[in-house]
């Protein structure tokens, strides 16, 4: 008699929701060590509620593969460099635009406004992705377009989180072109504005690049804690005002946090 098609022996795919206990315990140990600089064997198995024998076998296996290691001459464990190696490999293979598109679409659906992703390229910013909003206004931007750093929200974000020496180098090379009556063309005022950007966590282009258009942006962090990109949202100045502007800033910051998570980044490092 032939076996039934529903026989698990004939199934090439695992059951939905099935988890391997030993793998889960190994990941629990890695994540436990990720929250500490180091921990003893006793701290690990008691902290996770694991059987001593299982914890010992898993730790030995992880150590042999380089995922955990003994800290110096002590008997305490810490994360191994194999994780750092694999993390860097994963980070270099992430396509930021591919990861950003669904984030931008979700942001647009929540706000109905035009959303963009930009990165730094030399002394300019570049639009990598754009999702049009549903409002009748159409903005003068497209994927691949270059932008000034001093008078755009994304540009300000890309400047504001630079290391001090790099920021000074960039400012030395920038020509603070006046695009509108509101454009900041004074270096001291621009630096003050960038400090405000860092303090509140988002930047505002208040009709500085185009008349009647406001744009706000926030930083996207990479795995090293630096800012690798910016997400912005743009619309008519008359609509981007008051409490709605602050609400949009919150939406943009959450979108940036989501994309940062996808890129392996987090909160970022303060200078």
Name a few traits of the molecule:
271 residues, alpha+beta, Arc Repressor Mutant, subunit A, Beta-Lactamase, six-stranded antiparallel sheet, 43% helix, disordered N terminus
Outline:
The protein is of the alpha+beta class and 271 residues long.
What's the SSE blueprint?
Elements: H1 21-34, H2 41-48, H3 52-64, E1 68-70, E2 77-79, H4 81-92, H5 96-111, E3 114-121, E4 124-131, E5 146-147, H6 153-160, H7 164-173, H8 187-200, E6 203-206, E7 213-221, E8 227-236, H9 242-262
Antiparallel strand pairs: 1-2, 3-4, 3-8, 4-5, 6-7, 7-8
Helix pairs in contact: 1-2, 1-3, 5-9, 6-8
The SS-based structural class is alpha+beta
CATH architecture field of the largest domain: 2-Layer Sandwich
Low-confidence spans: 1-14
The coarse silhouette is elongated
In N-to-C order, the SSE pattern is HHHEEHHEEEHHHEEEH
How many runs of DSSP E, i.e. beta strands?
Answer: 8
**Sheet with most strands:** 6 strands, antiparallel
What's the rounded overall pLDDT mean?
A: 86
């Amino acid at each position: 008699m032939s076996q039934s098609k529903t026989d698990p022996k004939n199934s090439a795919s695992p059951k939905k929701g099935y988890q391997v206990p030993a793998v889960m315990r190994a990941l629990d140990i890695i994540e436990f060590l990720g929250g500490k600089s180091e921990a003893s064997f006793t701290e690990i198995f008691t902290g996770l509620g694991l059987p001593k024998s299982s914890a010992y076998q898993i730790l030995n296996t992880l150590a042999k593969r380089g995922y955990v290691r003994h800290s110096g001459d002590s008997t305490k464990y810490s994360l191994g460099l194999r994780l750092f190696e694999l993390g860097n490999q994963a980070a270099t293979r992430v396509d930021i635009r591919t990861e950003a598109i669904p984030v931008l679409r979700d942001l647009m659906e929540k706000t109905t406004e035009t959303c963009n992703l930009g990165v730094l390229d030399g002394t300019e910013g570049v639009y990598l992705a754009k999702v049009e909003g549903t409002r009748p206004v159409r903005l003068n931007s497209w994927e691949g377009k270059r932008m000034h750093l001093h008078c755009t929200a994304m540009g300000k974000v890309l400047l504001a989180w630079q290391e001090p020496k790099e920021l000074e180098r960039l400012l030395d090379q920038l020509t603070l072109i006046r695009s509108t009556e509101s454009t900041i063309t004074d270096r001291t005022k621009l630096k003050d504005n960038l400090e405000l950007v860092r303090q509140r966590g988002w930047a505002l282009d208040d009709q500085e690049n185009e008349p009647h258009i406001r744009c706000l942006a926030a930083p996207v962090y990479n795995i090293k804690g630096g800012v690798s990109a910016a997400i912005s949202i743009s619309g008519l100045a008359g609509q981007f005002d008051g409490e709605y502007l602050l609400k949009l800033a919150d939406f943009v910051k959450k979108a940036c946090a989501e994309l940062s998570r996808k890129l392996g980044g987090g909160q970022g490092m303060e200078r």
